[in-house]
Design a protein that fits this description.
It is built from 6 helices and 10 strands. It is elongated. The two termini are 27 Å apart. By secondary structure, the chain is of the alpha+beta class. It has helices at 4-18, 39-46, 142-150, 157-161, 172-181, 195-214; strands spanning 23-28, 53-57, 60-65, 68-73, 79-83, 93-99, 103-108, 115-120, 255-259, 262-266.
């Protein structure tokens, strides 16, 4: 699943393509993805309107026009691809956009867990309500996270980091990488993380996310940039998807366990 760095990379790629550009054509090839696509609202709100800005909230992208915004989520396998025409170039293309003068963007999502929704001007959307602070957009205090985590009697620190209501935008890849860099076991209860550890986790999280954005994100299976280029942060991964390979610090084999139905990769020697 594309995580914060991949979504931020997409936002930055889209900005020069569509900012201050008018949407000339819009075509939908299905009526639903994870949720029903509000076809008439999107056509009414977007067609012949000029994009004023593009923002990101967690893993969501908002493409703003005068009367509202197109809300985009990539789900598990979504991509936005720049092509040369309105004709669908790939299987699982679900929407096609033409911006002036000749910018064509195709929304492709094989698993259909993403979404294309409408947010009226001056309003928010239920998917955006209750999202936690963005680790890149605002400073997160270690003392504040410690207090919040104290109330989570059962959650592990990894599950806590991946809970969008606590911190938005962090998924499985970066949760594993951050906890390894901070030398904290993913199995440790979040309520037992002290202020010093929280400070290290949060600073490491920001650092790793920023480095991944510079590298264009992480391409493992489904994520590519609008021009088809891959994200190269995968070359810097230390534990994720490296089961039984030697730890880069102590050479102990990397372990894989399952937490909340997701694979967790860690070093049992380095992470306590």
């Amino acid at each position: 699943m594309p995580e914060l760095p991949e979504v931020e990379t997409l936002k930055r790629a889209l900005t020069p393509l569509v900012l201050n550009k008018r949407l000339l054509k819009l075509r939908f090839l299905r009526k639903d993805l994870r949720f029903s696509i509000p076809l008439s609202k999107l056509r009414e709100g977007l067609l012949n309107q000029t994009v004023s800005k593009i923002t990101r909230k967690g893993k969501y992208i908002l493409m703003h026009v005068p009367d509202g915004a197109l809300l985009i989520h990539l789900g598990m396998s979504g991509r936005v691809i720049q092509t040369s025409s309105m004709k669908p170039m790939k299987k699982h293309t679900h929407a096609v956009f033409k911006f002036e003068p000749d910018v064509y963007l195709h929304y492709v999502d094989p698993r259909r867990f993403g979404c294309l929704l409408w947010v009226p001007k001056g309003q928010t959307h239920p998917l955006l309500e209750g999202l936690g602070p963005d680790p890149l957009g605002e400073e997160i205090a270690a003392t504040e996270m410690k207090l919040v985590a104290k109330k989570c009697s059962k959650a592990s620190i990894k599950s806590f980091l991946m809970n969008a209501k606590r911190i938005s935008g962090v998924g499985n890849i970066y949760a594993c990488e951050v906890l390894f860099a901070a030398r904290v076991s993913p199995k440790k209860p979040a309520r037992k993380i002290n202020s010093v550890q929280w400070g290290l986790i949060l600073s490491t999280l920001r650092d790793i996310l920023q480095k991944s954005i510079v590298a264009g994100g992480t391409t493992l299976r489904d994520f590519y940039n609008t021009d088809g280029s891959q994200g190269y942060y995968k070359l810097s991964l230390t534990v994720y998807d490296r089961e039984n390979k030697p730890c880069p610090v102590c050479t102990e084999p990397i372990k894989r366990i399952v937490q909340s139905a997701r694979s967790t990769f860690y070093c049992k020697v380095c992470q306590k």
